[in-house]
Amino acid sequence: MERDTLFLLKHRFVDGPGTAFYCPECSEVNGLLHYHPELRHSVDVRYVDFQRPRPEVIARVGEANQSCPVLVLAAGSPGEGPEVKRAEGQGTRFVSGSRDIGNHWANRFGTSRPH
Question: What percent of the chain has pLDDT over 90?
């Protein structure tokens, strides 16, 4: 069975003259995966570079939706809540943003949800 795919930015990236950063929303989702390790059996986690374009993400949900974090739902995955969007022209379902991903997993798997 195909699993959902979670795209996160790599943990440390440079944006500007030598300044290292991390993505707060990606860190929040990483924390949720730490709190609920059982989720790793249901999702394929892929870390992508900060620099755009992000070809692997674009191939799945289109250029307009390449922000991270983004959870791309597999064809057979349940989920049609208000947080689920469809990639224009592709029909691929996805959830973007740490809070929406957290709420989606809470609805689907019964994990804790963002407060």
Answer: 83
Q: pLDDT averaged over the chain?
A: 94
The answer to whether 46 and 56 are in contact (CB under 8 A) is: yes
For 22, the domain range is 4-109
Give a yes or no: residue 21 inside a domain. yes
- Is 66 within 8 Å of 58 (Cβ atoms)? yes
Q: Is the dihedral of CA 79, 9, 111, 74 positive or negative?
A: positive
pLDDT tens profile 46-77: 999 999 999 999 999 999 999 999 999 999 89
Residue 114 falls within a domain, yes or no? no
C-alpha 101, offset from chain centre? 7
Count of the separate structural domains present in the chain: 1
Q: Which residue has the tokens 């986690």?
A: 45
Domain-located, residue 115: no
